[in-house]
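#lab-general

N.A. 3:47 PM
ok so I finally got the sequence cleaned up, no stray characters, all 352 residues accounted for. can someone with queue access submit it? mine expired

B.Y. 3:52 PM
send it over

N.A. 3:53 PM
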Amino acid sequence: MSEVINRDRRLFLGAAAMSVAAVRLGMIDSAGAFAGTPDPNAAATTKAGAHSSFGALKQTVAGPLNVAYAEAGPAGGTAVLLLHGWPYDIHSFVDVAPLLAAKGYRVIVPHLRGYGPTRFLSSKTPRNGQPSAVAVDIIDLMDALKIQQAILAGFDWGARTADIIAALWPERCKALVSVSGYLIGSQESGKKPLPPNAELQWWYQFYFATERGRAGYEQYRKDFAKLIWQTASPKWNFDNATFERSAASFDNPDHVSIVIHNYRWRLGLADGERKYDDYEKRLAAAPVITVPTITMEGDANGAPHLEPGAYAKKFTGKYAHRTINGGIGHNLPQEAPQDFAKAVIDVGGLAP
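B.Y. 4:20 PM
back already:
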């Protein structure tokens, strides 16, 4: 496995060097911006914070939602879906997407339910944040965009969503990149107490279990999100403009309801929808993931997470783990976009 990854790394660097040479020879216009045409030299030059916008978003009806998403790259390229977490949004991938688009991938970056311009089609639809519902949203989106199979890559809620799809619908997942590894859980597993220090890391989950917590998140959602950013990525020196670009997505009218329901559902304090019961039953058995996978972790992740050895056996296909050094925290794609994009490219090379 490591030999395959290393070979792909040499190919990646070789392609980047060819792009640099092309720019010097005047074969490529290096002034292309991500909001317009992707810069073909982006794979060699993009660093964290190099981009601030996706440009105009697209909208499509998918299942119960009108989904807002960014798209980059050629329509005929291998599809990659990049899935964000909480409390983040699509800007976690604002530097990743142009790297992949420049390599010929069709990149789709959706706002999950409760974020940004994504909206429910009906006021009668339960504002359900249970993990299987979010996963079905992505299957619905793939169907709406006529994407039969895609590389799925994400962190936090996005990694859990990608894990679920890889486990329940492996035919839809060409390969997987999952920050913090195997994140599939269940209400039953959520009943098991953890050691005190581990429980402390989940303080916000217990806060959200109370009506005071719901009211507090409603009133102070931006302050709350910034605190999570700071504690989950203690060495990431993001500026206020970077935070505000993502924080605008939390103004979604359903955001608080989705977040609160998600964490209450995990503790068994809120019911899910019956139509997802079969999926949750299968997920409660902690199914293995068979698709080619690269898991990742930042060396300074301040959010709750397991050591790689605790979940490695849950991935039974081609598998590798990468720890990214340099003070990288929980929001790995935004803090280390080149490493994340490289993992997507490499794992695609492992797929049949």
